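Hi there, hope your week has been kind to you so far. Would you mind checking whether the tokens look sensible for this chain? I owe you a coffee for this, so here goes:
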Amino acid sequence: MQQAFQMLFPFLLVPGWFGALWSAAQLSGWAKLAAKYRCDEDASVESWKGWRWGKFGIASYKRCLWIAVTPKGLHIKTGPLFLFRPFHPPLLIPWSKIRSVEESSYWWLRTIKIRLTDFDKEIMLERRILDDAQRFLGDKLNPSH
């Protein structure tokens, strides 16, 4: 029995991994965001901040986000490389689609909560990620109370 499991394990691991990534994309809302904000042109972005934490709806992405602030908007992709990319295409959220940004905290981490004009879930990212975005956000950034 154990030998049969050892032989089948590689064949179960890959579908299980893809199933988990698909589920995360659906539960987090990433799939809905990708339908609107998919961006295949991330090669020109030079200021990626990698290994970042983020939360989309109820799904937490622990140190597998790459985020960049550009004049076009907020670029978000998963990584490293291909391990987390299935069902999670790169996103470019235009600044005009961000309704509000609120400072908050999640456990011990200083965070920001981003609300979009056309997405019903909340996006939470590390606060320092948007340090370079103030000029694009204008009055959308609301300090916590």
